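Ticket #4471: structure export looks truncated?
Reporter: QA, pipeline team
Priority: medium

Steps to reproduce: submit the single chain below to the structure queue and open the exported record.
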Amino acid sequence: MKALTPSAALAAIVGDKPLPRTEVVKKVWEHIKKFNLQDEANRKLIKADAALREIFGKAQADMFEMTKLISKHLK
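Actual output as written to the record:
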């Protein structure tokens, strides 16, 4: 896969080096699990902390919507 450069907001989570999209999503999931950001009642919802709020643009996002929101921060 082609390595893509993350935006400054996304780089705060995944680092500033170019990465394939699959690695970016993997690192975002590591961040979500590390800080326990999945909703307790509905595990499909991701609660955004300060770093993820800059990427999502809102307080929470569906896990399926998350990939689309991350794509906006990759070049």
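Status: closed, not a bug. The export was complete when the record was re-opened. Leaving a note from the reviewer for reference: Residues 21-34 form the longest helix (14 residues).
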